[in-house]
Amino acid sequence: YVLGYRGRELALDPAYAARIQAGGGVVAPAVLAGGRIVGRWAQRRSGDRLAVSVEPFGRLPRGARGQLDEEAADLGRYLGVRVELSVLAGSAPA
């Protein structure tokens, strides 16, 4: 989504570009809403539990929290684990 184009401004606010693509080919997992990258997410597995944390790049669009809950539940069903979702407070550009 971000690797295929030189200009990413249509999908990603340049102020947050380094949080998604830090360089060296490393791309963080992105949260998409309405075709835009609105945050990033990470996961940590421990036994039969999966902790998923979402870092929004500001205020999430209306309804996004419910959609994140659904996506986390789907991930848990796919992996056969219990998922704990945490959504951090929106953050400002670095």
SSE blueprint and pairings:
Blueprint: H1 17-20, E1 21-23, E2 26-27, E3 30-33, E4 36-46, E5 49-56, H2 64-79, E6 82-87
Parallel strand pairs: 5-6
Antiparallel strand pairs: 1-2, 3-4, 4-5
Termini separation (Å)? 22 Å
Please write the string of helix (H) and strand (E) elements. HEEEEEHE
- What order do the strands of the largest sheet run in, or round the barrel if closed? 3-4-5-6
Secondary-structure-derived class:
alpha+beta
- Determine the number of helices (DSSP H or I, runs of at least 4 residues): 2
For the secondary structure, the number of strands is: 6
| Strand residue content | 35-45%
Key terms for this structure?
globular, 94 residues, 21% helix, two-stranded antiparallel ribbon, 4-stranded mixed sheet, alpha+beta, 2 helices
Describe this structure in words.
- This protein is an alpha+beta fold and 94 residues long.
- Helices cover 21% and strands 36% of the residues.
- It is built from two helices and six strands.
- It has helices spanning 17-20, 64-79; strands spanning 21-23, 26-27, 30-33, 36-46, 49-56, 82-87.
- The strands form two sheets. It has a four-stranded mixed sheet with strand order 3-4-5-6, with helices on one face.
- Strand 4 and strand 5 form a beta hairpin.
- The radius of gyration is 14 Å and the shape is globular.
- It starts with 16 loop residues before the first helix and ends in a 7-residue tail after the last strand.
